[in-house]
Structure prediction request, 609 residues.
Amino acid sequence: MMILWKLFIASLKMYSRQREALIWNILLPLFMIVLFAFVDFGGLGKIELGVVNQSGEYWLLDSLKHVQTLSIVEGTREEELKFLKLGDRDVVLVIPPESSGARLGELSLFTNDGKPQEGQLAALIIQRVCDDVVLKSIDEKSRIHVRVEHVQSRNLTYIDRLIPGILAMSIMQTGIFGVAFGFVGLKKRGILRRLWVTPINPNDFIIAQVATRLIVLVIQIVIMIGCGILFFDLHFVGSFLDLFLVGILGGIVFLAIGFAISGISKSEDQVAPIANLITLPMILLGGVFFSRSSLPGIVHTITDVFPLTYLADGLRTIAIDGATLGDVVPQLAGLLVWSIISIILAVKMFRWE
Amino acid sequence: MTIGSTPILKVQHLSKRYGHLLAVNDVSFEVVTGEIFGILGPNGAGKTSTLEMIETIRPVDGGEIMLDGLDVRKKPQEVKRRIGVQLQSSSFFDKLNLVELLDLFAALYDRSVEPMVLLDEVELQEKAKSMVSELSGGQKQRFSIAAALVNDPKVLFLDEPTTGLDPQARRHLWGVIRKIRNEGKTIVLTTHYMEEAEELCDRVAIMDSGRIIASAPPQELVKQLLSQGFTKGRVERLANLEDVFLSMTGHSLRDE
Prediction:
């Protein structure tokens, strides 16, 4: 027991002195959050409307400027049509010269074929604003009013989805890359051989290594969720304890995969391609950066059972939906099955020499 | 401490096979308490394989090894507690300093040591807080010996301890090795430097192609060769051990 404790302390000490580990496991994920926070996905909902106002009237333009969905730019007919072709405008509205007062001539709306939704919406809005003028002459009482009530709601942002996803991803990287590179290095440099001439119990060594990485994982969760709350306005409503439990279960899956990879790799050069082959599809399709809802049927079904999907979904529902462990039973079950599979693989494939 | 007469290590008919290659072929020798025993031979002669089987980290294919009365095959854990090992190309964790490494290695034997005393033994006190990567070649080898002493072993195995060192560092290490022997340890080392064997070893065994082809004190081997009528082309000394070695193993270079 004392030996195990000493190994664990030594292993923690070594880990904390590795600058690369700090960069890969903590700083890089944080940097990715910052990077994606700057890509303002909320702003994509605006319609770029080019207005060519050939009349002397401004009331239509002024009314349109009050519509928040529209981002309005004025220009000449040629310029605006050119921008539309280039894709810089979604819609171009032309107000003809023969307009005067409330009476406008026939308005022309040029829409971008590649953006049918924006075109339709812009047409509806413009029609509605013009109709308003006509409707004003009708008796007020015969009109149907829509009363809008504002409700304070907890609007989840892209960042809210992103942070737990990045957290899951970095837990995976710490497990797979950390262990696989670490052990292959220890093997190649003869450090393991030197240990085997002592009466060490190999299991003690493995346990100390795993325990160290689980500690790192807990630190990753605290730092990333903490930074999310402090700097990125993360709507965190979950329990840290539940996050730790799901994170550790996920960590065990990926640590075991890391041990399996280190078993079949003779040098660090062999680790990278194998580890990337396993992790890249999961990062791209496991719902870390983008929702999986847009994936086509069969791909969606495959990504359903990715260990990273289970981990990311589990962490996400706990962190931003306030789910309890009872609510994430499917994810826990998925991770449990994966941990059994990957531990069996690790035991079969791991080699000391 | 004087050299005793009781063998602390007895190797009998030891063999190791890698595929078709018989790397160690029916090797037998004894090492007595308190001596420095050298195993000499060109690269690929089977020195390291022999040593690693004794050190319990390579499976024995045939024969028997008894260390301090223990069968190495049956009691590897007991044997590990009685030996200290410096491997040919072993390195140490690179994020722990020398004191921390010695503490950790002692802990693996369920012991505690005074790291500074061990470092003093190999003249590395001033490097106590350094990492292994910051040491010179000679210092690394000396540290490696200190790490092999954490369990106060009865037998110390050194695999090519001076390979790659400059003459000064080599002679310094000889001093350290002698000092450790004088404190009561038995030392088994491999080398392919003949003047090292002549200078340091009480007895040597010469290995070639997996076999031991001669075993005696260095001076005796030289005498034997001279008695066969050996003379040097241009004589400064009548002959040295290097002549014995080369006459027995041939002059051609061997690949690793």
Notes: Residues 158-188 of chain A form the longest helix (31 residues). Strands of chain A lie at 47-53, 70-74, 91-95, 108-111. Chain A has 13 helices and four strands.
